[in-house]
Amino acid sequence: MTAVMAMCTAMRAATAMTTDADLVEPLTPEHLQRLATWFGAGFPIGAFSYSHGLEAAFEAGLVTDRDGLIEWIEGLLLFGSARNDAIVFCAAYRRFPDLAEVSSLAAALSPSMELRAETLNQGEAFLRAVRQGWPAFLDAGASLGDERTRRETPGWPFRGPTALPVAAGACCAAAAIPLHASLLAYLHAFAANIVSAALRSMPVGQSEGLAVQAALENCVSLTARDALSASLDDIGSATPMLDWLSATHETQYSRLFRS
């Protein structure tokens, strides 16, 4: 067991008694299907083209095998960008449609140009895809839409570029999908996309990729549970290697991914 995994287990035990109404909200069949679609690998937001710094970590020899990949993603979930995303997601969900503060904050959190482009491009793509697939649902409240709607609708909740956790949290709130299940789906998709990037850039096969996903389940659950009781004041990270590597990747000579 890695040091991060051990810490994850200890933190999970310490928070086992946490209670929150969000944890017991029922999911309807429609909710479950929508989460599977919105956070599935086939949802057209371009997630496949980003590695969230992993490609640079592999190039630098810092993440080279299955155990290293598990520890890398666990660090992001417990102490880094995924933890912050989870807090932002909850804030966007609970504050919808009053999103000015959380949207502005989320757009400013990224430590590098590439990570900023990653979250903003995917956020805008998420809103476009949801509008295209569920136009009646979105148009009914004039709450989400395209750039023209953004300009012409007085009550439009997004001002300026929209980060992915804000877009996703707002859509789940607008669809009345329970928060806890929505957040779990978001974090699972975050981890799964990095595993997918590893399969294409590292000597990690599909069987090992599945083992990584299985090993991350507890930390995904813990990150979601902790974020439910956190506030925007709790945002912060302790993953300076991601910050450095994402900036390094911007000038990496040969690469497969946009981040």
Describe the largest sheet.
none
Helix content: 55-70%
Strand content: under 5%
Using the alpha-carbon principal axes, give the shape: globular
Mean pLDDT: 81
Low-confidence stretches: 8-19, 151-155
**Count of runs of 4 or more consecutive helical residues:** 13
Please state the CA-atom Rg, rounded to the nearest Å: 18 Å
Q: How many E-type strands?
A: 0
Structural class: mainly alpha
Straight-line distance between termini: 29 Å
Following the backbone from N to C, one meets helices and strands in this order, namely HHHHHHHHHHHHH
Brief overview, please?
64% of the residues lie in helices and 0% in strands.
What are the key terms here?
259 residues; mainly alpha; 64% helix
If you had to describe this structure to a student in words, what would you say it looks like?
This protein is mainly α. The chain is built from 13 helices and no strands.
Q: Layout of helices and strands, plus pairs?
A:
Elements: H1 3-14, H2 29-38, H3 54-59, H4 66-79, H5 81-95, H6 100-108, H7 113-133, H8 135-141, H9 147-152, H10 164-174, H11 179-201, H12 206-228, H13 240-249
Helix pairs in contact: 1-4, 4-5, 4-12, 5-10, 5-11, 5-12, 7-8, 7-10, 10-11, 11-12
